[in-house]
Write a structure and sequence with these properties.
Blueprint: H1 13-26, H2 28-31, H3 35-52, H4 57-74, H5 78-83, E1 86-89, E2 95-98, H6 100-116, H7 118-122, H8 124-128, H9 135-154, H10 162-167, H11 174-205, H12 207-219, H13 228-231, H14 234-238, H15 241-253, E3 263-264, E4 269-271, E5 274-276, E6 281-282, H16 286-290
Antiparallel strand pairs: 1-2, 3-6, 4-5
Length: about 325
Amino acid sequence: MIPHGFGIQKTNTKTIQRRKNVTTWLGLNGASKFIPHMVECCESILDNMEEEGTIDLMHEMNSLTFNVFVKIMLGDDIKKLESTLYPYTNPDGKVENITLKEMLIRLTNAYVQHYINPLTFLMPFLNEYHLVNPYKRDYKNNQLFKKYIKEVVESSDNKDSIGKKFLNNEDCTSEQRLDDMIAIMVAGTETTSHSLVSCLYYLDKHPDIKEKLKKELEKEGFIKGEGFLASIGVDSIQNLTYLNCVIKETLRCDTVIQDSFDYECSKDTTICGVPIPKGSHFRVDLVSSHYDDKKWLQPKEFIPERFDFESEFYK
């Protein structure tokens, strides 16, 4: 979906700088000014839940994270994405006019399906050259999505938006600039929404943990009502130590991705007695490491305190 993105290409001086740009532009200090918009998006989701009763929480969280990330990336130009419709070819071959938000959600899910499709591994050339569906159809949709996103950013009146910074980055090619920007939208939207749903699930299953977290939020001034937004800032967020533990434990228990990106061995080496020739590709198994009982106490249990240095569960 984003073959030229900074997370896909081999590490070198330029890719390292591109990654540093992302952390600088999207770090907590830089993104904190968008906290009111984040709260507004959350309140909108809650209103929908109250009105509809039963909802698709994953889809709602996808919408929430998309709105937040796009607001940070494009500023007020998010209105263009919410109102304008674009053609998208569905699996049944019918063309439907949808928003770019919905297009991103569908494309992300489509490319996830590529990852688990046996044809991707048995006959990789079908995917590489987009010879048959779903690869051919999804590639076409993806190219159109990139074209539309680029047009929105280029026509933006917000000269200081982070989207502009991506597209004006002279340290990389035009394909890399666009893919870097979309990488944040894709990775940020899908992974964050997944983790949000998982976190809500674990809190619902463990009311004692939810109550402890609620008390910490209230102590730091996170109480809905007059002055709520004024009390939220970088300092108050960084004081939420138990929330930090809950988030880390959620990511440990329900890992968003099963393994890391590819690593390539730059020279012949040996790890734990296993010889690894130069040029070998390998990945880190995240799930196994997160449930290793040699590293974690009661690894199958949801225990946020394991990330508290003073807790008996810290190891």
